[in-house]
Amino acid sequence: MNQHFIASELSTTTQAAEGLPRRAWTVVEIEEMVRLGILLEDDRFELIGGEIVPMSPKGSKHEHYKISLLHFWMKRSTENYRIAQETTLRLDAYAFVEPDFVFYNSDVLAPQLAPSNTLLAVEVADSSLGYDRGRKARIYANSGVKALWVVDVNTLETHVFGEAGIDGYRLARIVGSTELLVPDFAPELAVKLVELPLI
Hints:
Elements (H helix, E strand, L loop, with lengths): L2 H8 L16 H10 L8 E4 L2 E4 L5 H17 L4 E5 L3 E4 L2 E3 L3 E5 L12 E8 L3 H5 L1 H9 L3 E6 L5 E8 L2 E8 L24
Parallel strand pairs: 7-8
Antiparallel strand pairs: 1-2, 3-6, 4-5, 6-7, 8-9, 9-10
């Protein structure tokens, strides 16, 4: 059995029987499977509570706004923080996520990226909106990520979460498309989504 066959077999999804125990994978084990080619580096999944969770396909509107936001923010960013796009954010031994953007402290090297030094995570949502502002927001908060934005590319509303706690974010509000979205740590990155130059 060759590695390509193994990888393609593992990339299919199944629905486990409810109530039956399942093996919890660790971040280290997943990284080793990627290194060995058992899982493909380009496979789109996250590890949530030890379970491999496939990510939704990216639609054209999602990509349009994600690229435009990156271009807008990179032109205005300073040396006080770093911006990473679609990087792996390891939350604990059994979980990692792949946010569209992570803003983190400038004195941190990328391999040291963790919830404790993450200033803001941003999810650009299309079909995944319900999951991103629900279960995934609770996962971010439970891990100690200080702030989360979930951008709805269909309405251009942004779900803004803050004050992370064990049961979720204590602060949650919706910022409309004509209102300024302003990161607490970087007022120069303020953007109105309705006025975002699309590229």
